[in-house]
Write a structure and sequence with these properties.
This protein has helices spanning about 5-25, 30-40, 45-50, 60-70, 75-85, 100-115, 135-140, 160-165, 190-205, 220-235, 250-265, 285-295, 330-345; strands spanning about 90-95, 120-125, 150, 170-175, 185-190, 210, 240, 270-275, 305-310, 320-325, 350-355, 360-365. Helices cover about 45% and strands about 15% of the residues. The chain is elongated and about 80 Å long. The strands form two sheets. The chain has a six-stranded parallel beta sheet, sandwiched between helices. Strands 7-6-8-9-10-12 form a six-stranded mixed beta sheet, covered by helices on one side. The protein folds into three domains: about 5-80, 434 Repressor (Amino-terminal Domain), CATH 1.10.260; about 85-190 and about 330-355, Rossmann fold (3-Layer(aba) Sandwich); about 190-325 and about 360-365, Rossmann fold, CATH 3.40.50.
Amino acid sequence: MTRNDSKVNGLVETKQTGIRAHRLESRKKPTLKTIATALGLGVTTVSRAIRDDVKIAAATRKAVQDMARELCYHPSRAGLRLRTGKTNVLSLVLDTEEQIGSFLSQIIFGITEGLEGTPYNLIVMPYPKHSDPVAPIRHLVESEAVDGIIISRIQPADPRVRYMIEQGMHFVTHGRTQMGVEHPYVDFDNEAFARISVECLANLGRKRLSLLAPPAGLSFHDHTRHGFEAAMVEHGLEEVPIQGISNDSSIQQIRLAVRKLMQQSPAPDGLISSSGGVSGTGGAILAIQAGLKDVGAIIGRDVDIVTKQLFANLPIFGDEFYVVHEDVRKTGRDLATALVGSIEGKPISELQTLVVPTKVSLQSTTDRDE
């Protein structure tokens, strides 16, 4: 090897070493000092700007926060907890068989949108369906892992709510309790949904109605049944009960139950699906449609259907259905806003949202309208 060859090799080796060092440096987790060095500011100033301290000039805060995003800076959870007693983490807790699929996706999208511009991040904590529902809440509280919790599938006397109140944990419920205590919630008025659904079918001349209700033991079951029963009395209609299933039942279970329902005499001429469970993605409508087809019943002729619709573009599958829309993505945004508001100390009365539906719409390729 010549002297020139050695020199070239040395330069190449030096360059490669520098590249490796740069890569190693770039892989290091950025710190407040990284941001401070990049902007020529003090670490204390950067720390206060990250926390959006109003005593720091707005232009400086923006520069620091922009640089933090560019460098993918995230504060140390352990350090944050030591300094502030907070984690900036919120948790959505749900059972593993409860809302897996599009419904859950839309709720999470909404919560994420609602947390945009705040320091909070979301984690989802599932738990087995038939285990103690308080257990995951207790774990989060005792480990001080989160600043707030979101729960759904609310019971009239929900033990999770009672526990979080006792522990002083910030929380918001997707649904209302009947415990005589005030707490943050976001809920869809299922009593109003049932009432306007019955009214719609009564106006179509239907006389015998069946309700695919939520599971007994949940608050929105009670609300739905109360609205349904009151409207049935008001309009002088007859209920034909659906036996042995709820809207948590599988598609096959709903199909078989509808088939059996339509084979009895007299059969119902109107069906109301309160959604939730498999119907969150249109599954209940498919099941109902299949059960009706099994016995030759024609939708729009032999029976009309009103269903809660959780998505604006739910397929109609070739038949016409009357729908009441529930915007679950907005529900997610409202849940996030309520929980952050609770943490910030806003009055509970400002953190309670009840969405009241007023419209039943016909979704069909025909010109028939409600």
